[in-house]
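Handout, page 2. Input:
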Amino acid sequence: MLHTYILKGKLINPQTIHLEEPFYAEFKKVKVIIEPEAEVKDDQAFVFGCLKGKITMSDDFNKPINDFKEYMQ
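Output:
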């Protein structure tokens, strides 16, 4: 049976990977695929209020939902 695990880690040197979380496996051999993680630049960091005006709620947001009438008695 094929299992796939996705774990984050840091490549220390060509022979050593430091994983961010423990990994316990019963396998004697594994296949490791290394993909670089996209780095977030300082100018791409989250800015408070950057979604202002982009999220809206409908006018009837607080109206009772008909499907839940029996629970609201």
